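For the sake of clarity, the format in which proteins appear in this thesis is described at this point. The record quoted next illustrates the convention:

___
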Amino acid sequence: MNPQETLNSLSERFKATASVNTVFGESRTVEGRTIIPVSKVAYALGAGGGEGRQSLSTETAGERVGSGGGGGGAVFARPVGFLVVDSDGEHFVPVGLSKRRLIAACFAGFMMGLMIRGQGRKN
């Protein structure tokens, strides 16, 4: 299978999973409100391949022909909030880290990176 065929095959498989139900979860009714979970979904695909010919030494007659290929993909889903429908209408309720926690996590990651980088220079 060449790289284009591999990529097309992977794309078709992912298309089968891409539906409105992937982004919007199953709705639930609680105390007169309909709650619909909402997610952010991302797909990543990649494929590659190659062919080659290698002349063998005079000791071995013939020619060596090689080819190879492969592909892969991933689906990432992250909850982003809920759509709430009630007698007042509909509104979106986001979920996630607060700005303060997000900034603290980024700072901690940056500091950890500096520490790891410093350890690599000592060795």
In short: The first strand starts at residue 28 and ends at 30. The two ends are 44 Å apart (CA to CA). DSSP finds three helices and four strands in the chain. Strands lie at 28-30, 33-55, 63-86, 89-94.
